[in-house]
Amino acid sequence: MHPYLFLALRVITGLGGAMLVITTLSAAIRSFVLPRNEVVRLNVWVFMGVRVLFDLAARFANSYERRDRIMAHYAPVALVALPVAWEALVSVGYTGLYWAVGEGTWLHCYQLSGSSLLTLGTIDDCSVGGGILTYSEATLGLLLLTLLLSYLPTIYQAFSRREVTVALLELRAGTPPTAACLLGWLNHDGSVQNDDAQWVAWEQWFVEIEESHTSLPILSFFRSPQPGRSWVMAGGLILDAAALLFAAVDGQRPRQAELTFKAGCLAMNRVYRFFDAKAGAEPSALLPDDGGETPGRAVFNEACEELATHGLQLCHDRDAAWKHYRELRSRYAPAVDFLTRLTMAPTRQGKA
Fold it and tell me: Of 53, 115, 197, 321, which has fewest CB within 10 angstroms of its CB?
């Protein structure tokens, strides 16, 4: 090969290796250091690759409990796969850099890269330029692992706060949980106008969901400790309760309940848009039908009858209430249905 052509090949290989290392480091920083929600394509590809394997395994499950046990491992495995993918790409990038500065054959450069990245120190035969690259690669290897390990407590703290509200909601909404039962609990003293503290807690929960599940999207796939629970189901239940309160119950709307409903719609829709429009991380089979699923009129009437048994005064015009309820649900139902399918969450029978 002509010397100038060989030199050009080394330069191109070195630039390609440098770009691969920079891209990988940028992905790690944007994943855990950048304080805002941003789609990292490299991470999406890793998550999608792991998800395909778990989807195949879940297809052989003959019950929801078995599928839930399988999918419970998805988020932790995908999270652990991230630094493995990052370090593999950094190793490939530095292999190109070592070859570009003349450190020997491709095999020797690969061994030198792996030894430096994992700080093994098994190969030390390199030039001054190679030594500089060796120290920089060892630093990056430690940095990538440190980033993940330092953010694991943050991830699990957010998960724990989320699940406390989910568990408390199950105690208040009955078994199986329904919006009508939840409103009945709120009306335990004969009024739904003095439950601002509860609505404030749910508003704060929705705000945290929006922030944590878009900045750390893997959190969306961490499943509840109990198979029958889900943060998606809990969010939909709170929003259903608010919609039922506004549409079917006669009287003035609690102002805090309105704020919670707005916060919930924003949170669920922003998480939905993050996965649907930005990341494209969902299989096409998980896309919701247009307009979402709306409970039937019979289910709505049953919910109204249950509210009446709890002592709530209902609107006289049931047709207008039904129309209003459907309009309110249209603001969040597509997002909730999509996230239910995306996370393989349990579905509720009778959404009202």
Answer: 197
